[in-house]
Write a structure and sequence with these properties.
With 122 residues, this protein is α+β, with helices and mostly antiparallel strands. The protein has two domains: 2-46, N-terminal domain of TfIIb, CATH 2.20.25; 53-114, CPE0013-like (CPE0013-like fold), CATH 3.10.530. It is 17% helix and 37% strand. The chain has helices at residues 35-46, 79-87, and strands at residues 2-7, 16-22, 25-30, 49-50, 53-59, 65-70, 74-75, 90-92, 100-102, 112-114. The strands form three sheets. Strands 8-5-6-10-9 form a five-stranded mixed beta sheet. Strands 1-2-3 form a three-stranded antiparallel beta sheet, with helices on one face. A hairpin with an 8-residue loop joins strand 1 (2-7) and strand 2 (16-22). The termini are far apart. The protein binds iron/sulfur cluster.
């Protein structure tokens, strides 16, 4: 058995949570004040998830790159694969904020969307 200690980042209380693991299985979770902390800590121990922010090349806009973000968190262990897919993207202006740039990024089921709008260069 292994006990992992985490600080919950979901609210300013910053509860110190202890998760007892048997391999990749959660046995016990203690120290969380609410259920949100339990879900966070167990996910973090079993398969951490993160929002990914990056940029893709945009063609025909005043700027060379478009900021993008995943619509939801994706597994941390999928970041390299996701970045390889993102680096291959070329998109034409105009682009609207929240426009889907890649559907099902790296097979995660999560979309990559534009973080801002970009018009064609005038
Ligand atoms: S466990 Fe709940 S109360 Fe504690 S930091 Fe996390 S979200 Fe806040």
């Amino acid at each position: 058995m292994e006990i992992k200690e985490l600080i919950c980042v979901n609210c300013p209380m910053g509860c110190r949570i202890h998760v007892t693991m048997d391999g990749r299985t959660v046995v016990k979770t203690e120290g969380n004040t609410c259920s949100k902390g339990k879900v966070y800590a167990e996910q973090e121990c079993v398969r951490p998830m993160r929002i990914l922010t990056s940029t893709v090349r945009i063609i025909g806009a005043a700027e060379r790159v478009l900021p993008v973000i995943t619509k939801d968190a994706i597994p941390l262990d999928m970041m390299d694969t996701a970045m390889k897919e993102i680096r291959r993207v070329r998109i034409d202006a105009p682009v609207k904020v929240d426009q889907v740039i890649i559907q099902d990024l790296a097979g995660t089921g999560v979309s990559l969307i534009a973080s801002r709008s970009m018009n064609p260069a005038s």
